[in-house]
Fold:
Amino acid sequence: MTRRRRPVPVDLAVVLGPLRLPNPVVAASGTFGRGDEVAATCDPTGLGAVVAKSVAVDPWPGNPGLRLTEAPGGGMLNAIGLPGPGIDPWIAHDLPALVARGARVFASIWGRSVDDFARATARVRGAASSLVAVEVNVSCPNLEDRSQMFAHSPSATGAVTRAVVDELDAALPVFVKLSPNVADLCGIAGAALSAGATGLTLVNTMLGLVVDAERRSPVLEVGGGGLSGPPLRPIALRAVWDVARAFPGTPIIGTGGISRGVDAVEMLLAGASAVGVGTATFADPRATLRVVHELERWCARHGVRSVAELTASMEAR
Structure:
C-alpha cells in the first residue's frame, strides 16, 4: 500500500528590512479601501499587510466623470485621480477601523509638491504606533516641475523620499512606489534608495487608453488612465527583475497583475520579498487570502519549506 506523503510545513514569514510580516501577500493601495470597507469581507489578519488607499495632506476630489473601465486581456483602466478626505480624517476615522480588524497597515501618501509630502508625513508620524510602514506614492503630478510625475525624475523622487525619511526620523520603514512609465527605472530606484528608502513598491499602473468606437472618443472622461491587472504582470516582473539585480538585497513589494498563487511565486522568484494584490480584489474581495493559500500549497507541493527562499532565486539564462 502506497502511503500518502504529508504536505511539507511551510514558513510563510518574510522580512523586508526592519519589517517582519507573517506572509508575503499585501493588499495593494487603492484596492482595499481607505478603512475597513473590504476588511469586513476579507479578514486582514490573514494577510501580510494592508496598504491603505493613498491620501494627501488636504482633501482632494479626484477626477470627474467615468473614471474606471475594463481593458482588454482582463485588465482595468482607471483615472480615479486619488480622491480622499485628507490625512487627518483618515487617521482619525479610517485607520482605527482598519486596525480594529487586526490589519497590519501601511499608510500611503501622495502630494503635488515636496512640502505636501513632508506635511502629510508629519501627521503620519503622530500615528506611527498604529502603522507598520509608509508607502510613498510618487506617481502623481509634481506642481514644482511643470506637473511632471515625481516618479519620472531621479532628482524629484530623491527629494520626496528624503523629505519623508527626514520627517519620520526612523519612526517607520519607508517604501517608495515607482512608475513603470520611464526609460531608466533602475536610476530612479537608486535615487529613492540613496535618499533613505527602506525598499520599493514595483510597480504602479502603466499608461493606457481605451476607445469607444461608436462615440469616437476615449471611454474615460479625462482620456487615458492607468492600466492594471493581468496585462501589467510581465511589465512588473521585468521591473522587479531589473531592480533586484541592480540593487541586491533591496526589499521589494512586487505589484502588478497578481491574481493566483503561482503569480506570487513568479514575482518572488524575480526578486520581490513580498507581493501586492490589487485589481484581482475588485472581482473577488477575498482574492488576497486565496493567493496566500495557493502560494502555501504551491510551496508544500514543491518542497519549499520557507517562502523567503524563493526571493531572487531565479537564475538568468
About this structure: The chain is about 30% helix and 20% strand. The CA atoms of residues 45 and 102 lie 5 Å apart.
